[in-house]
Amino acid sequence: MFFSFDLLFEAVLFGVxxxxxxxxxxxxxxxxxxxxxxxHVAHPAIMVFGAYCTYLLGLYGFDPxxxxxxxxxxxxxxxxxxxxxYYETFERRGSxxxxxxxxxFFGLAFIIEVGLILAFGVDQRFVEADYIGSSxxxxxxxxxxxxxxxxxVALVLTISLTLYLSKTFTGRAIKxxxxxxxxxxxxxxxxxxxxxxxxxxxxxxxxxxxxxxxxVGPVEPSLDRVYIGRTFAVVxxxxxxxxxxxxxxxxxxxxxxxIVLMLFGASWAPAVAFGLLLIVLxxxxxxxxxx
Amino acid sequence: MKYWISAILLVVLAAGTALSxxxxxxxxxxxxxxxxxxLATAWNILGGYAGYVNFGTAAFFGIGAYTATVLFKWLxxxxxxxxxxxxxxxxxxxxGVGLLTLRLRGIFFAIATVAVIFICETLMINWRYVGGAxxxxxxxxxxxxxxETYTRMLFVLMALLAVGAxxxxxxxxxSWFGRxxxxxxxxxxxxEASGVPTLKLxxxxxxxxxxxxxAAGAPMPMYLSFIEPVSSFNLTYSVSALAMxxxxxxxxxIGPVIGALLLGSVQQIVTVxxxxxxxxxxxxxxxxxxxxxxxxxxxxxxxxxTRYFK
Amino acid sequence: MDQILQVKGVSKHFGGFTALSDxxxxxxxxxxxxxxxxxxxxxxxxxxxISGALRNDGGSILFEGVEVSGLPAYKxxxxxxxxxxxxxxxxxxxxxxxxxxxxLEYVAHGKEEEVFDILRRIxxxxxxxxxxxxxxxxxLRKLELARAMAAKPRLLISDEAMAxxxxxxxxxxxxxxxxxxxxxxxxxxxxxxxxxxxxFSQRVVCLDAGKIICEGTPAxxxxxxxxxxxxxxx
Lengths: 291, 310, 234
What we know:
The structure holds three protein chains of three kinds. Chain A is mostly helical. Chain A contains eleven helices and two strands, in the order H-H-H-H-E-E-H-H-H-H-H-H-H. The radius of gyration of chain C is 17 Å and the shape is globular. In chain C, the strands form two sheets. Chain C has a six-stranded mixed beta sheet with strand order 6-7-8-3-9-10, sandwiched between helices. A four-stranded antiparallel beta sheet of chain C has the order 2-1-4-5, with helices on one face. Chain C is an alpha/beta fold.
């Protein structure tokens, strides 16, 4: 274990990029779970599914970011369908819904994971692009281009979504339905349609997040498991419903993981997210900026 | 009374079968199915009765297995001690996780249990004493008479554990404690307002649940003569322990038993005849189907059909 | 004066929103006390703080002279505070009888026959073995009250038990509460139905935007211009 400030700085730098990436992959969950209160443990699985779709499109020559953007529309529709189904089957039926809703999404995540294994096998898949594989040199430090790309897309995604939710009419309706559904109903708006739309957006965003996932590194079907830890750690640490919190929480996770990676190696890094999650739940479950 | 007679008969039946000339494979598969009876029953104490979903069965199971391994390697402990140790450590784990997260909403508890799986697995991967990532070979001691093979003995042992677990679940269900858990599930706020110490009851259910899962995991290293982290903390244990009560029915102790026997047998058949992946797919699909279409499980369907034919 | 409940300077915040601000009120043992106020004024929040469903941020709450603000709700119920919920929360997988057995077993440690007595008084005796999720709205309201009664409280808080009920149903519930009070149980009633509050209460307090704006006899409250303004919104 060789410690130096140079290594630490590089770890922090990498951590910032990684953290922004984590924020972007979690922002869909911030909407679906944080705002809409859907126990969406299948969020990472859908994201990994998006990564595999990006891989498929890559086989046809699509650049991964383009693929990700193209996939946003069908994933948006998928999201609306999933929410509609969830609402009709579970949310409507009352308090039993809690257990069954969770079990449903857990089962769904499993089905997606095994489906991917059956379709693609357990081997890792990756995409190729100009910016994957080479690094930018900044003095003594080398930053992989793919991390910069992910960082850039992540930043754009997070800021766009935050602005959407606070500046546009539908965006504010989504926030309103999260805070006070009965009031919204009284105003004549249909909360179910709004939530459906919001869930669609969250899923559409996950498509792009999936594209970034495969840009940042190779993917395998079981990847959704560790990302349950990462996305929920970010969303809980941020505080349910806080978009800006998601960015801050993502950075905290990214930097922590990067430092642990440097100090203790790759076998400990995945546990950081889960450990952070448990600590937050134990000490401050409402997170940094919770409702 | 009828219950205890049936229970004793079942154990006698299991022992009798083990001493017969039955195909050895029956005991390999039977041990696994009985393990799931324990896991499903244990899960249901917290998940079915109180309504708090535990995704982390694999953690409690795996920790039970590793505790047994440590006790065996360090002290040469006999099976009974291994099981007691596994139950104790997993029970403590259940208590710890519960203390941390049962004050919060159900989904936070569920996510915390996923976290526990990963953390336990990572810890075991990095612990040389129990073999780390490559695992550990274990030499079985001499099989006790009158059993011919070690597997047959483990089969009967697991049958005993299964009866024990179901008896505990039955006692909880029919006692005032069980009514308190149901009140928590139906409306935790109203339960608290009605004088139910909700946190204490949840903690107790979580601890008991963890203990039983640990007890079920303890004989596993002896069953396999081997232990390693990835298979010990396999998420399939978590999905199955959740799916089986959902399929069988969560309101009554017989539900997890039905679910475990049904799904466990299906799993054994599919894994051998088709593949392990299809097996997991089947579990996932059945879980979703039952959760959506038959929320009260097989018990609920049975009740509906009998009402229909009256 | 034997004060069964003393609320002193209680406040409660939800993020930036102040639901209760420096609320103080004393309730005498055996009193019939009415709590009114427009929607959103903090009535249920105050009840939640008293019963323990919420923890108050500031101030103190003394029940029979003992500070209870730090106690979880179930302990307060065991000490003698019971409440019904505005939106009925039955234990829906249980029958009416079983619903009442929960507080009976966990608080009152009584016998099953006592529960039947409560069911008779409240008019649900013939529904004792009906699944609670098959009850009508009125019956659910009665179940809420019955469940609170089964805890053998010394202070009963009724949270809008009469909302949406017909005239005769309101009379029914009113009679139940009056009879309860006659046995020595202090009753706090939250209601919007003014005629019920007036007929029932000896003293009334009006909340608005988290603050007490008026306290006194029913007649004086109704005549008070601040109260009229709060309800009609000047």
